[in-house]
Amino acid sequence: MRRSSNAALFWPVMILVTVSDFITKWLAVKWLVLKAMPHPVFGDWFRLALVRNPGAAFGLNVGIYSRYIFMGLTIVALVILARLYRSTRPGDASRVMALALVCGGAIGNLIDRVTSVDGVIDFIDVGISEITRWPTFNVADMAVSFGAFLLAWVLWEEDRDLSTEVSPVSAASVARESGEA
Questions:
Q1: Which of 58, 154, 145, 53 is CA-nearest to residue 102?
Q2: What residues pair up with 88 in beta bridges, in sequence order?
């Protein structure tokens, strides 16, 4: 019964992230190929530019087997995230939201890796000039980044709460143990 109370938040968020990522990537491939690259949306600081990333975040690439290595790492991460989900207390909305965001984003990028040898589709390009641009990213990357940050914060708070949790001890029991009683 524990998972069902969290499922009402987890599944819709995870599916929304995955579907949104899929649709926006499909639109990027359909429309951005024909447009001038990059395509300014809000001046030079927010542009759309179709890029295929065979590596991981920030263009991390481990050679010709990057696709398979990152597919494997994604599957391992999803298994770990599933275990975290199963251990989540009912009603822990922050933790459930974080897990749903990371899972949805991971699945979105995994779909790209499985369906194309060219890599993950990235298309959101932000920055001020050619020198100060953030690496091109997608909806899945945003979900993974925000979800990972939220999950780290939630787990840190849980750890902090556990370490500051002190069982109540009466003065009489302290005195008894010290031989003063």
A1: 145
A2: none
Rounded CA-CA distance 65/4 in Å is 39
Active site residues: 122, 141
Quick check: helix, strand or coil at residue 88?
Answer: coil
Residues 113/118/121/126 CA torsion (nearest 10 deg): 130
Q: 102 and 144 in contact (C-beta within 8 Å)?
A: yes
- 5-28 pLDDT, tens digit per residue, is 899 999 999 999 999 999 999 999
- Segment-wise mean pLDDT, segments of 10 residues, the chain, 181 residues: 76 98 96 83 92 75 81 96 96 97 98 93 92 93 97 93 62 53 48
Tell me the angle at which helices 2-32 and 93-115 cross, rounded to the nearest 10 degrees.
Answer: 40
Report how far apart the first and last C-alpha atoms of the chain are (Å, whole number): 48
Measured CA to CA, the distance from residue 105 to residue 20 in angstroms comes to 10
CA-angle at 138, arms to 118 and 142, nearest 5°? 135
| pTM attached to this predicted model | 0.83
